[in-house]
TrEMBL record, chain A:
<dbReference type="GO" id="GO:0004364">
    <property type="term" value="F:glutathione transferase activity"/>
</dbReference>
<dbReference type="InterPro" id="IPR036282">
    <property type="entry name" value="Glutathione-S-Trfase_C_sf"/>
</dbReference>
<dbReference type="Pfam" id="PF14497">
    <property type="entry name" value="GST_C_3"/>
</dbReference>
<keyword id="KW-0808">Transferase</keyword>
<dbReference type="InterPro" id="IPR040079">
    <property type="entry name" value="Glutathione_S-Trfase"/>
</dbReference>
<dbReference type="InterPro" id="IPR036249">
    <property type="entry name" value="Thioredoxin-like_sf"/>
</dbReference>
<dbReference type="Pfam" id="PF02798">
    <property type="entry name" value="GST_N"/>
</dbReference>
<dbReference type="InterPro" id="IPR004045">
    <property type="entry name" value="Glutathione_S-Trfase_N"/>
</dbReference>
<dbReference type="GO" id="GO:0006749">
    <property type="term" value="P:glutathione metabolic process"/>
</dbReference>
From TrEMBL, chain B:
<dbReference type="InterPro" id="IPR050213">
    <property type="entry name" value="GST_superfamily"/>
</dbReference>
<feature type="domain" description="GST N-terminal">
    <location>
        <begin position="3"/>
        <end position="83"/>
    </location>
</feature>
<dbReference type="InterPro" id="IPR036249">
    <property type="entry name" value="Thioredoxin-like_sf"/>
</dbReference>
<dbReference type="InterPro" id="IPR040079">
    <property type="entry name" value="Glutathione_S-Trfase"/>
</dbReference>
<dbReference type="InterPro" id="IPR004046">
    <property type="entry name" value="GST_C"/>
</dbReference>
<dbReference type="InterPro" id="IPR004045">
    <property type="entry name" value="Glutathione_S-Trfase_N"/>
</dbReference>
<dbReference type="Pfam" id="PF02798">
    <property type="entry name" value="GST_N"/>
</dbReference>
<feature type="domain" description="GST C-terminal">
    <location>
        <begin position="85"/>
        <end position="209"/>
    </location>
</feature>
<dbReference type="Pfam" id="PF14497">
    <property type="entry name" value="GST_C_3"/>
</dbReference>
Length: 229, 222
């Protein structure tokens, strides 16, 4: 028992990736157990480790935590990435809610048919550039500070960087109308813990491929018929 | 300006209902503005009220809050319904997120195409009975306390109570295998603020009907 948090998920991004980002940003080392077979998943289920029969699951501080948002909130608070008071936490929660919705459109992307993928790509870019990015662009412009909330590095910054990079994978010049976000991206990427996470060999997972989709479907026996937004 | 929180949403449950429940449970009076037309909604967006162009919107303590979870977390934090420390908060968060997944199915149900309604209803029943209710039945049985977390009334209790009633509206006998939840439901119903919220004339909204569905589709039409 190493005392490090242990992550139970597939060997791929999915819902666990935001958790990997946040732990890494906080400078916390973690272990991972990758689900590859149905049998592994059933063993976890039978062992009672999965409160609602789902992953992500993170063993941390004697708890078996499930529910991505709960896990992220715990990590943010524990490592002082959640603002200094209730109002800053409210802002962080709002901002993270937005980037979470945006990344949600990308989460199911690998499970779509080729035709639906094109449709979804356009949808993602449209939402990013008309609904989400303008909000963060304005926040940064209005206060002129380096970080989104309270002039302090927080969960909101980590989540936004993750979202920006994911959307850029779908359209590489998507930040062209957003100078504040371009500067933000450069700044946050150069924070030592984040820089390390962005280097090859880190626990950051690559863009999900067909093998990932196959594994998820095989292990969960779900997600065979996902449609675009 | 009354100082009371002001809720902007449609005149119906949707994503706002859980917020109404939590404010009511905390004994907080609030005002409501109802969206009835697309023009009202478009104006809210144009005037910059909706951070991500979406409702729910709750004006509270000088903030224009959006994102249901953010709003609920703020209310829970402010009114001491969020546990006494980080670990209790973690438990509460896990429980409310699970319940929220169940509630999401109920939320979407009125919008199901007619040929999917029966299947979706079966899914709600299956998930409630096999995935969610057993968890809370076990939690209550194991610690034998009145409340889910830390022997104290919290956001988790409010959200579970809301979910139980919402599922019962669709699946009347759903609690038949869950004696702890039956007792929990009775206890919650008798808490003064909740009792008041369950009485006619409260801000609690009725189950969504066709008119509500129509209004949603009209107001949010692209």
């Amino acid at each position: 028992m190493s005392g490090k948090p242990k992550l139970y998920y597939f060997d791929g991004r999915g819902k666990m990736e935001s958790i990997r980002w946040l732990l890494a940003a906080a400078g916390v080392e973690f272990e991972e157990e990758f689900l590859e077979t149905r049998e592994q998943y059933e063993k976890l289920l039978q062992g009672g480790s999965l409160l609602f029969q789902q992953v992500p699951m993170v063993e941390i501080d004697g708890m078996r935590m499930v529910q991505t948002r709960a896990i992220l909130s715990y990590i943010a608070a524990k490592y002082n990435l959640y603002g200094k008071d209730l109002k800053e936490r409210a802002l962080i929660d709002m901002y993270v809610g937005g980037t979470d919705d945006l990344m949600g459109f990308i989460l199911m992307f690998p499970f779509l048919s080729a035709e639906d993928k094109e449709k979804q790509r356009a949808f993602i870019v449209q939402k990013a550039t008309s609904r989400y990015f303008p909000v963060y662009e304005k926040v940064l412009k209005d206060h002129g500070q380096d970080f989104l909330v309270g002039n302090n590095f927080s969960w909101a910054d980590v989540h936004l960087l993750e979202a920006i990079l994911m959307v850029e994978e779908k359209k590489s010049d998507v930040l062209s109308g957003f100078p504040q976000l371009q500067a933000f991206k450069a700044r946050i990427s150069s924070i030592p813990t984040i820089k390390k996470f962005l280097e090859p060999g880190s626990q950051r997972k690559p863009v999900p491929d067909d093998k990932y989709v196959e594994t998820v479907r095989r292990v969960l026996r779900m997600y065979y018929d996902i449609k675009a937004n | 300006m009354s100082g009371k929180p002001r809720l902007t949403y449609l005149n119906g449950r949707g994503c706002m209902e859980t917020i109404r429940w939590l404010l009511a449970a905390a004994g907080v009076e609030f005002e409501e503005v109802y969206l009835e037309t697309k023009e009202q909604y478009d104006k809210l967006i144009k005037d910059g009220f909706l951070l991500f162009q979406q409702v729910p919107l709750v004006e509270i303590d000088g903030m224009k809050m959006v994102q249901t979870r953010a709003i609920l977390s703020y209310i829970a934090g402010k009114y001491n319904l969020y546990g006494k420390d980080l670990k209790e908060r973690a438990l509460i968060d896990m429980y409310v997120e699970g319940i929220s997944d169940l509630m999401q199915m109920i939320l979407m149900f009125p919008f199901s195409p007619p040929d999917a309604k029966e299947k979706n209803l079966d899914s709600i029943k299956e998930r409630a009975t096999n995935r969610y209710f057993p968890v809370f039945e076990k939690v209550l049985k194991q610690h034998g306390q009145d409340f889910l977390v830390g022997n104290k009334f919290s956001w988790a209790d409010v959200q579970l109570m809301e979910a139980i009633l919402a599922v019962e509206e669709r699946v009347p006998a759903v609690l038949s295998g869950f004696p702890q939840l039956q007792v929990f439901k009775t206890k919650m119903s008798n808490m003064p603020t909740i009792k008041k919220f369950l009485q006619p004339g409260s801000p609690r909204k009725p189950p969504p009907d066709d008119h509500y569905v129509e209004t949603v589709l009209k107001v949010f039409k692209k």
